[in-house]
Amino acid sequence: MNSPDFHHDTANTSWVHIVKRYNHPNPVKSWFQFSSNLLLYSLAWFLMFESLSISYWITLGLSIPAAGMLVRLFIIYHDCGHGSYFKSGKLRDSIGLLTGILTFTPYYHWSNNHQVHHDTAGNLDKRGTGDVWTMTVAEYNESSRWGKIVYRFYRNPVTMFFVGAPFVFIIGNRFTKKRMNQKGRMSVYITNAGLLVFLVLMSQLIGLKAFILIQLPIISFAGIFGFWLFYVQHQFDPSYWARNEDWDYKRVALEGSSYFKLPRVLQFFSGNIGFHHIHHLSPMIPNYNLSRCHRENALFSSIKPLTFWQSFRTLTFRLYDEKKNELISFRRLKFI
Question: How many domains does the structure of the chain reveal?
Fold first, then answer.
């Protein structure tokens, strides 16, 4: 559905020929990944239900791998939105709408916003859609007292991950917005209708209380983990940010999108999205081809990985300092 604009880099097109080799979806791999993920997610859901009669602590423990499988389903949903998962547009949209219901996210609306993110990531003049709210030092200093309080509240890790992420998936995604197009509104209605059917059916089968005790922690943990992945993909240092006149497609992919090197099990649950530098270079690459593309090409050998433990340092980054071209903490702001 959405393809990258390969004309941003007119000086050197060798990277275009490299990534094009990996752009083609393999229907066998796509169907196997989708069906096996759906099966494993359903199995985790069933085991959580069975554990309710034993101990809710077991249920909560099982919700973590269940949430991991839901994040993996979200990556499939995400690939469908980029047009990279199946050749058939109708099939992609059907799978996207279905996984949108399972992930509580309206397919067409989110995909549209996400494409805007790809077109504007790292562009200081085009912030505001599909990204993490990031102020420059100058903007923050010029803000009112109330504006600074709101921004600090938003950028607090507790607010972003433990309050904001579950809120967006459970409540925020249930409503249409004025700027939505017709397709976006329709996807909200379809997702809400699908969730209502899911809730009613499961309530009839296992009871409303059991449904909430199972589904609520799954979507909450998945939202937290998913938002963490999205946050780390562009909130790291050193990272590439630029004004519109200097913004470069290749640089924002290779320098402004992280190579988040995760332990193997987390790489599995995150659907290889840690190879985000390659994903931004070509969103048409299916998730199962990302690691191979990185491994097989010398172009990516100089990309410095961001490890799991190093990623926690990104929580201190709050503002972008245009003078020094770096993300800084509020504490650093005192010395500027």
Answer: 1
